[in-house]
Amino acid sequence: MNYRVPQPVPQVILDDVRGAQKMLSGVSRVTAMEGSRHLSALTGSPVHLKCENLQRTGSFKLRGAYVRIAGLRPEQRAAGVVAASAGNHAQGVALASSLLGVRSTVFMPVGAPLPKVAATQEYGADVRLHGQVVDETFLAAQEYADRTGAVFIHPFDHRDIIAGQGTVGLEILEQCPEVRTILVGIGGGGLAAGVAVAVKALRPDVRVIGVQAAGAAAYPPSLKVGHPVSIDDPNTMADGIKVGRPGDVPFAIIGELVDDVRTVSEDALSSALLLCLERAKLVVEPAGCSTVAALLSEPELYGGGPVVAVLSGGNVDPLLLQRILRHGMAAAGRYLSLRLRVADRPGALAGLLAVLSVVDANVLDVSHVRTDPRLGLTEVEVELHLETKGPEHCAEVARSLHGAGYKVMS
To answer: Is 85 known to be catalytic?
Structure first.
């Protein structure tokens, strides 16, 4: 569905983005554009991946943060800057501030992944852990700004931030001039708004499509009513786009210039992360691969010309990555968990494993339960975690177990 919302003239124009591109010369990387044969075959159109996960600090956020801080007046720089973030914006502000010689303080949630906290500190920020959720962290950062005079650097709701992020759009047009569709993940909307400003000014024929996680999709209802609305308790593994309310500045631009906003499921995000890792050899965080999830979910929407999917970031906590990969393998039919009952006697488990061996299912983990009151005196419950080759192989495993007389419980 194509939403069009009457809005005033966007507050960011092409000249702003071009000015940001000059400012970022020698600071941010012109990130690679990689082709994907798998996604191209799936959609019927050439698909290219814009690898902002390979940007300095691991995401596009450096672009906007640097432009915003570079534009501060001398007295503002002297007061320092403050930001609130669970990861990517924190690192972007920290590095941009260090490069510009500005003191930075970054508030992060108490539960922020340790690698992201350490990286932010190494880039030069004074990190302060506060709050259990990002909303609490934001309030602490804003209170700090009010108390000290430090300039609050918003992650998306400022024209300089949007102009900096828009340089991604200019690079896409330079690297893939034949592009027909650009997919961009949306949280607050800064990246999508900036890309739309740059692309629509130069190539109004190119479709710009935003992608949100279904559990944190504030833009579709906001676009329907014509103004930003909040959603309660956004819930998604894609913390980089887990934003409960669109930013006022990017919302005006997205409502005017972005052609559509699609949503993707958690299963699609897991599958997309797994595909990026296995097929493209790229480590991408869940928010960063939301665009790939959109291609996997509705490939028929993206025929008719080259597609560019922006991989917005690659900062994923290793522990979360482990869980997501397991989830992605399960969603792709590559990981199977099941429970069944066998006789509590010597050789029973060996017989079960022999059946699995015949169908070439790799056993990752086995556990026994003997204390469940629902079990008979001579029964034991076995829980198995198997690595499989896809949905057809999962069905083959189930048929083989049934044929051997086993009753699968889940």
So the answer is: no
The 10s digit of each residue's pLDDT in 51-85 is: 999 999 999 999 999 999 999 999 999 999 999 99
Give the whole-angstrom CA distance, residue 117 versus residue 124.
Answer: 11
Q: In terms of DSSP bridges, do strands 104-108 and 81-84 run parallel, antiparallel, or are they unpaired? A: parallel
Amino acid at 85: S
SS3 362: strand
Give me the pLDDT at residue 349, please.
86
* Active-site residue flag, 61: yes
Rounded CA-CA distance 11/371 in Å is 66
Are the beta carbons of 384 and 323 closer than 8 angstroms? no
Instruction: Catalytic residue, from 28, 45, 222, 312: name it.
Output: 312
Of 36, 59, 61, 297, the active-site residue reads 61
Identity at 252, one-letter amino acid code: A
User: Cα(282)–Cα(303) distance, rounded to whole angstroms?
Assistant: 24
pTM, full prediction: 0.85
Is residue 302 within 8 Å of 358, Cβ to Cβ? no
**What pLDDT is attached to residue 133?**
76
Residue 305 has which token pair? 């010309």
- What is the predicted pLDDT for the residue at 410? 65
CB-based contact 250:162 (threshold 8 Å) = yes
Give the DSSP letter of residue 313.
Answer: B
The amino acid occupying position 271 is S
What does residue 225 show for φ and ψ, rounded to 5 degrees? -95, -10
Q: Are 201 and 14 in contact (CB under 8 A)?
A: yes
Q: How far apart are CA 168 and CA 188, in angstroms?
A: 17
Q: Where are the alpha helices (DSSP H) in 73-158?
A: 74-79, 88-100, 114-122, 134-148
Place of tokens 């075959």: 41
| Interstrand relation of 335-343 and 379-387 (parallel, antiparallel or unpaired) | antiparallel
* Dihedral sign of CA atoms 264, 289, 269, 251 in order: negative
Q: Which two tokens stand for residue 367?
A: 């556990």
Per DSSP, the three-state class of 99 is helix
The residue behind tokens 């109004």 is 204
